[in-house]
Automatic annotation (TrEMBL):
GO cellular-component term (any): cytosol
GO terms for MF: ATP binding; phosphomevalonate kinase activity
Protein name according to UniProt: Phosphomevalonate kinase
Localization per Swiss-Prot or TrEMBL: Cytoplasm, Cytosol
Entry keyword annotation includes Membrane: no
Species annotation: Periophthalmus magnuspinnatus
Keyword Ion transport assigned: no
Catalytic activity from the UniProt record: (R)-5-phosphomevalonate + ATP = (R)-5-diphosphomevalonate + ADP
PANTHER family: PHOSPHOMEVALONATE KINASE (PTHR13101:SF1)
Source taxon at top rank: Eukaryota
Chain sites annotated for binding ATP: 11-17, 135, 174
Amino acid sequence: MATKLLVFSGKRKSGKDHVTDLLQARLGTKVSCIVRLSGPLKQQFAQNHGLDLNLLLGTGPYKEQFRSQMIQWGEAQRRSDPGFFCRLATRDATQPVWLVSDARRISDLAWFQTQYPAQSRFIRVQCSDQTRTSRGWSFTAGVDDAESECGLDSGVEWDWIISNEGDPQDLEDQLRPVIDLALKAGSEPGPNQD
Ligand SMILES: Nc1ncnc2c1ncn2[C@@H]1O[C@H](COP(=O)(O)OP(=O)(O)OP(=O)(O)O)[C@@H](O)[C@H]1O
Ligand SMILES: C[C@@](O)(CCOP(=O)(O)O)CC(=O)O
């Protein structure tokens, strides 16, 4: 049972993986684990289509060829069960702090809010389109204007909004309160109601 859930969201190439990797490096793997909602989705999709799961999970261009198909397949699953991937992705998480790297939809946030109301905090990672472009992003119709990328653009009260333009010290400073909260949660004996 988690004592704290840090649920991250952000557009493609905003740096969600970078930020959650950095947090895990600070917190350590005993205290924290990274939960990717897209993990079980990619695993099943790779199996169904004979694809390279490691490349689908990585940060390179491979996964982009299949993104649109994966979105459609995932949305079909979510239509019959909105919590499907949240449940699967968190199934084996045993550390006290969960770093959920990729919430994309209101239904994702609602699931964590319902299951772990006291423990969940919601964090938006953002940067300019120019910075995203420098990291390999280019606009793709049907992806960048669809729910997968825009579902959390408005109507969410974020606990923190992190601006990730690439300055390491600036990022570190912004993450300080998040790290402090997670370290405090990680040193607590059990679930709390903070
Ligand atoms: N603050 C940063 N400093 C240096 N490199 C960064 C920073 N943030 C992100 N990057 C790099 O930019 C690229 C995209 O970042 P990342 O994979 O974390 O984004 P993402 O939001 O998870 O994207 P996607 O949704 O496409 O998986 C990666 O190569 C990552 O290492
Ligand atoms: C198919 C999908 O899970 C891909 C996510 O890939 P990534 O987090 O950008 O590496 C996006 C979605 O579920 O809408």
